[in-house]
Amino acid sequence: MNILLVEDDRRTAEFVAKGLAQAGFSVRRAADGKEGLERAVSESHDAAVVDVMLPGLDGISLVQELRRRKSALPVILLSAKSTLDDRIRGLQAGGDDYLVKPFAFSELLTRVHALIRRASRSSEPAGVSAGGLRIDLARRRAFRGDREIELQPREFSLLEYLMRNAGRVVSKTMIIERVWGYQFDPHTNIVEARICRLREKIEGAGGGKLIRTVRGAGYIFEEAN
Q: Distance between CA 208 and CA 202 in Å, rounded?
């Protein structure tokens, strides 16, 4: 899942981006309001975390412009302003949640998950099924038959991406950009390593292979043979 982080304070941005990445999210960053707005309207994101005090275009104005453009992107506003009037202003502008600085990352992560769950109830199915495998998107759990498969956050994101593209070959470049969220490095073996580990977990108990390597092209998730 993709998160847009719009934060001009470098230390805060790195702290939040690192935590979200460790939780399995692909994080795309913007350092000012104008860049944040451009990325919000031109790229696909599951949610945005936006600081209120931004250079160029403040967070409140950014959210107002998104709503004016009929964007339903879920937004959590971050601010050092903690008065009731400030929170009301942020929510009335179109923000979906408001978190006061300083905050515990665990609280931000909980709110991000809650926001995405609320948004997904109206726009996406509760889960994805393919090849005898089922994933619960809200609880981020995977099952093969009656057996639950224990996955790390990044493994779940990788499996989700493959299952959403079941029957379609996805390249190494596509996977690393969508699941890891950074520019493709042709020398890294991170995709191969995670695919190998994922295969062990979902195919280890039998039932046939689900992830096939297409030489020179990438990988495909397909029905077990």
A: 10
